[in-house]
Amino acid sequence: MGPQDHCGELLLQLSSTGSVIRAVKRELRPGAPRGGFALLGMLSRCGDLRVGEVAELFEVDMSVASRHVADLEEHGWAERTPNPHDRRSWYVRLTPAGERMAQQRLAQAREVLADALEDWSDADIAALTDLLARLRTSFDARRVRTSDLSRTASGAKGL
Amino acid sequence: MGPQDHCGELLLQLSSTGSVIRAVKRELRPGAPRGGFALLGMLSRCGDLRVGEVAELFEVDMSVASRHVADLEEHGWAERTPNPHDRRSWYVRLTPAGERMAQQRLAQAREVLADALEDWSDADIAALTDLLARLRTSFDARRVRTSDLSRTASGAKGL
DNA sequence: TATTGTTATACTCTATAACTATA
DNA sequence: TATAGTTATAGAGTATAACAATA
C-alpha cells in the first residue's frame, strides 16, 4: 500500500518507454542521420546555447554535449559564435540547413507518433504530455535538493 | 492545429524521459551491476521466458536478448532449462539469488522514484502509469498493423 | 584557484551478418 | 528450407579523467 507500490508500477512503464523511443527512431527515414536529433530540436526551440547549457538541459556530461555539438558542426547544421563576455565559451546555433533538418526530422517523428496515437483523444495526449513534463520537473527539483544536502553534509554524495 | 501539434509536444517530452531514466540508473547503488536491470524485473514478473520472447517483449534484436541473458547467467542470477518440446530453445528463469537481486534493485529504484514524486498524488501517479501503458499498447498495435501490411505485400517476418 | 570546454579512453547498449543446431 | 539461438563485429551514446585556455 502507499505510494511506493504505485511507483513500482510506474517504474516498469518508464522502462518500457525506451522501447517506444527506439521504435520511433528506427522508423525515421534513413538518410538523415539520427545522431543529435534531440539536440537539433532543442537548438531549434531555444536558439543560442552554450555547450554547458546543452549538457545541463540533457543532463549529460559536458564531454558528451561537446561531442554532439561537434558532430552537428561537422555536418554543417550548427555553428559557433564567440561569447563576447567570456572568451572561454561559445554560443552554438543552428545554420539555416540545420534549421531545415530540425523541422524535417520533427515532422517525420511527429508523423510516426500521430499514426500510432490515431485513436487517442487530444485530451489524453495533452494529459500524458503534461504529466511527463511534471515528471521531469520533479526530478530536476530532487536533483537540486540532493546536491544541496550533500553540500551540507560534507562531501558524501547523496542517497 | 489538430492532433499533430499535440504530438510534437509529446515527442519532446518523451525524449526528455531518457534523462529521468538515466538519473534513476545513476543513483542505483553501485556494486549491483546495472546491466539487465529491466530484464531482471521482467523475469521476476513473468517467470520462464525463452530468449526470443525476451527479445519481443523488449523490442530488441534476439542477439541483444541473448547477450543480456548470458550476462545474467554469468552472474548466477539466471539459469536455463531445456524446452522438452523443442530442443533448439531453452527456458530462462531467475535463480533464488537472481530473485533477491531483482527485488533489491526494484526497491532501490522505487525509493528514488518515490522520493522525487513525494508531492504527487496517488491519482496522478496512477494516471501517468496508465497513459504510459496505453502508449506502449498503441505502439505495439501499430507495429502489428505495419508488419501486416508488409506481409500482405510479400511475406515478411511475423509479429 | 575555479570554470569552460575539448580530447582520450573505456564501457554499455544495440543492430547486422555469419554461423550452429534443431525442426 | 525455416526457425531458435549464439557469436563476431561495428556503431551509437555515455562517463571518467587528463588536459588547455580563460576568468
Structural class from helices and strands of chain A?
Answer: mainly alpha
**Helical run tally of chain A:** 6
Question: Cα distance, first to last residue of chain A?
Answer: 23 Å
Share of helical residues of chain A: 55-70%
Q: Just give the CATH class of the largest domain in chain A.
A: Mainly Alpha
Q: Give the helices and strands of chain A as they follow along the chain.
A: HHHHEEHH
- CATH topological fold name of the largest domain in chain A: Arc Repressor Mutant, subunit A
Please, how many domains of chain A? 2
The description of the largest β-sheet of chain A is:
2 strands, antiparallel
CATH H-level name of the largest domain in chain A... which superfamily? Winged helix-like DNA-binding domain superfamily/Winged helix DNA-binding domain
Notes on the structure:
Two copies of one chain form a homodimer. The first copy, chain A, is mostly helical and 159 residues long. Chain A has six helices and two strands; from the N terminus they run ααααββαα. Chain A has a two-stranded antiparallel ribbon. The radius of gyration of chain A is 19 Å and the shape is globular. Chains A and B meet through helix 1, helix 2, helix 5 and helix 6 of A and helix 1, helix 2, helix 5 and helix 6 of B. Chain B binds a DNA duplex (23 and 23 nucleotides) through helix 4.
Features:
6% strand; disordered C terminus; 2 domains; homodimer; Arc Repressor Mutant, subunit A; DNA-binding; mainly alpha; 159 residues
Summarize the structure.
2 copies of one chain form a homodimer. Chain A is mainly α and 159 residues long. Chain A contains 6 helices and 2 strands, in the order ααααββαα.
